[in-house]
């Protein structure tokens, strides 16, 4: 298996400040002891404008082209991404889905749905639109990066609890399952969702706002509720033992507290979820 380890500290998916860029670098530092990560260079001094309902559209497309080129040249079998916002995952997920010919289940561990469109988004922030874009319903400027859009049966929202009304309506209409934090006390809902996808390969997206902010507050867009960090350990262990994980991400960290970074690293290391990636 050829592995690509990427650091993509983009902040433009949020667009109001660049805190997540430094946060991504700190997380990467914890994971990169003895392991190389390839950094996708970004600009941190630009002022973004709202374009077609998306803040910083031109910058986002520019940076998508950069990471797309790196991924296409490398042709990896699996990708470990440490990113700024959820928007950093557009290319890795699109590439892996195309590479595996849609034989890919996507578990979206996130307090939010990231299923808005430029028309439904209350903020214009692309990190709240990226999953909808991957499903083939995003802005036309991203279409060239997504040769094989995700199908609705490939996607499961895990731990989501702060969806906008249009996102809830979309999930209901498309039949996209939402596994609540309360349902994560046992493994059957996740296993059933992966079985529903019919896929043999797995992509795991982890936005750190998935966790209860009482336990882990150092995130870009905290949401009340959620499970504690220790409760994710057995879930990750089970996924690592049962499925072929070809993609993995950590995004939206904003603190400079080294203890919080260590929590993230220890969770991944202790659960074995990064086995084969680093």
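-> sequence recovered:
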């Amino acid at each position: 298996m050829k592995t690509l380890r990427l650091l993509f500290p983009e902040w433009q998916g949020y667009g109001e400040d660049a805190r997540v860029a430094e946060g991504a670098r700190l997380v990467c530092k914890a994971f990169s002891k003895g392991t190389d990560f390839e950094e996708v260079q970004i600009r941190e001094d630009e002022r973004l404008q709202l374009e077609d309902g998306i803040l910083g559209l031109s910058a986002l497309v520019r940076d998508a082209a950069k990471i797309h080129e790196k991924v296409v040249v490398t042709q990896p079998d699996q990708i470990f991404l440490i990113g700024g916002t959820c928007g950093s995952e557009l290319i890795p997920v699109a590439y892996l889905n195309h590479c595996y010919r849609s034989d890919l289940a996507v578990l979206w561990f996130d307090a939010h749905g990231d299923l808005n469109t430029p028309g439904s988004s209350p903020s214009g922030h692309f990190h709240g639109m990226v999953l909808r874009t991957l499903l083939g319903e995003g802005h036309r400027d991203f279409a060239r990066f997504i040769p094989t859009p995700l199908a609705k049966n490939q996607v499961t929202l895990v731990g989501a609890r702060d969806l906008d009304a249009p996102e809830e309506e979309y999930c209901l209409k498309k039949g996209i399952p939402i596994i609540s934090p309360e349902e994560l006390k046992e493994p059957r809902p996740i296993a059933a969702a992966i079985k529903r996808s019919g896929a043999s390969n797995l992509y795991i997206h982890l936005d750190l706002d998935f966790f209860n902010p009482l336990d882990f507050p150092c995130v870009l867009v905290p949401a009340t509720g959620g499970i504690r960090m220790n409760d994710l350990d057995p879930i990750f262990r089970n996924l690592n033992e049962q499925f072929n994980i070809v993609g993995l991400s950590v995004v939206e960290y904003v603190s400079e507290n080294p203890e919080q970074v260590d929590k993230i690293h220890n969770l991944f290391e202790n659960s074995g979820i990064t086995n084969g990636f680093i």
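The beta strands are 3-8, 38-39, 50-51, 54-55, 78-83, 105-109, 155-158, 178-179, 201-206, 244-250.
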